[in-house]
Amino acid sequence: HAQSPVLAAAVARLRQADAVARAAAAGLLPGVNATLQASRQARAGGQAEAAGNHYGATLAASYELDLWGRLGAEHASALALREASAHDRDAVQIGLTAAVAQGWLQLVGGRERLAIAELNLHSAERILAVVESRARAGAATALEQAQQRGLVAAQRQGLEAQRQQVQVAHTALAV
C-alpha cells in the first residue's frame, strides 16, 4: 500500500483539505499583529544631542463579525471537503486492499491449478508408457497409441498455458 501512487495522491488531497479547513477556521478567530522596534542614536561629533537607545512596541487586534455567516459557511464547507477527502482516501485503501487480495487469490489458485496440471501430465505420460508397452506386446492398437500421445501433447500445452497464467498473476500482484 505504501508505494501506491493512487493512495499517495489520496493522502495528499486529504492533507490539502486539512490545510484548507485550518485556514477557514483561522478566519473565525481574532487576528493579532505585534511589532517590535529598536533603534540606537549615536552622538555625533560636536552636537549636544544625547545618545541613547529607543524601543517601541505595537500590538493590534482585529476581528471580523460574521453577521451573514460567510466565515462559518466557509469553515463548514472546508470541514465537509476534508471529510469527503478522508472518505476518498479510505475508499482508495479499501479498493487497493481488495485488488491485492484478489491478485493473491488468483496467484494461489493458479499455482494450485498448475500443480494439478503437472499431476495430470504425469498420469498421462504413465498411461502412454503402458499403452506403448501393450502395443509392443500386440495388445493395443496404433490408434490407442496415437490418442494417448495426443492427450499427452494436449496436457503439455495446457501446462504451459497454466504456467503463463501463474506468471501473469504473479506480475499483476507485484504491480
Structural description of this entry:
It is a single chain. The protein is α+β, with helices and mostly antiparallel strands. The protein is built from three helices and two strands, in the order αββαα. The protein has helices at residues 5-26, 70-136, 142-174; strands spanning 31-41, 52-62. Helix 1 runs antiparallel to helix 2 and helix 2 packs antiparallel against helix 3. The mean pLDDT is 88.
Task: Put the structure in a nutshell.
The protein is of the alpha+beta class and 175 residues long. Helices cover 70% and strands 13% of the residues.
Q: How many whole angstroms does the radius of gyration measure? A: 40 Å
Please give the share of residues in helix: 55-70%
Inertia-based shape: rod-shaped
| pLDDT < 50 stretches | none
Number of helices: 3
Task: Give the DSSP E fraction (strand runs of 2 or more residues).
Answer: 5-15%
Total strands: the figure is: 2
- Overall pLDDT level: 88
Report the order of strands and helices.
HEEHH
Helix/strand layout:
Blueprint: H1 5-26, E1 31-41, E2 52-62, H2 70-136, H3 142-174
Antiparallel strand pairs: 1-2
Summarize this structure as a short list of keywords or feature phrases.
alpha+beta, rod-shaped, 3 helices, about 15% strand, about 180 residues
